[in-house]
Known about the structure:
Blueprint (H helix, E strand, L loop, with lengths): L6 E8 L7 E9 L2 E9 L7 E2 L8 E7 L5 E6 L2 E5 L7 E4 L4 E7 L2 E6 L2 E5 L7 E2 L9 E8 L6 E8 L4 E7 L14 E7 L2 E6 L3 E6 L5 E7 L2 E6 L6 E6 L3 E7 L2
Antiparallel strand pairs: 1-2, 2-3, 3-4, 5-6, 6-7, 7-8, 9-10, 10-11, 11-12, 13-14, 14-15, 16-17, 17-20, 18-19, 18-21, 21-22
Amino acid sequence: MAYPRRGWCTALAAREGTAQAAYAGGWIYYPTGVKGAIFKSTDFGATWESLASSPPDTITGIVADYHAGPRIYCSTTGGLYRSIDEGRNWTKPISQRGLRSVGAKYFYIAAGGDSGIWFSRDYGETWAKLDSGLGSTRVKTLAFLGHDPPWPWLWLLAGTTGGAVFYWDFPVTGLAGPHAPAPACAQVATVCRNRLTLTLDRPAQVRLLDVTGRTRLSQALPSGKAELDISALPSGVYQLIGSRPLGRVIINR
Length: 253
């Protein structure tokens, strides 16, 4: 990559599942001062070209999300920037200074920096703080950890200046189409003496998935109170799945 002037590359991102579309962000020394810059490669990094426009602030993190069309998110020293047209235009949903990292997975977006973590559940349209449990609100780096459906859980990892890594886990809901029928819901789920007892508001095919996403137990259950025999399963954390995520099951023998 050849910058037109002297500068620094501080962030890299690639389209998930392929390195053909890659982005590099940082800052460049111009005669009028330091400005942000983003370059894109469409040939696995062999050659690079600058985007039509870039955020004006120094870029500290960049992520390319193609889950709902091409979206680019950049954390910068002056806030968070978002482009929904591959860098031709930018909006600034967060003006908080000192952002250092940004991550995206499905419709979830997270940005972190000197003031903690900002979190969005709708592709960056609305934001709220997510600092519960943080030992330090000075966040240095963020990353999402998870798999594609049917594995329905994601983890958000946050590294802080205290040298600690914190995580949050939450179910991925809302991935079904807008006209999907209402899913079965477990009202009660308990584990006792090798039996998992749950109450469903409608019949459902219920599965238990291990931490690798592999189905370890599957059974069709009627509505109302029902039981699953879990005596053959080893100790561990499992995800209980009906027609949607129903919760976690911890087996401790």
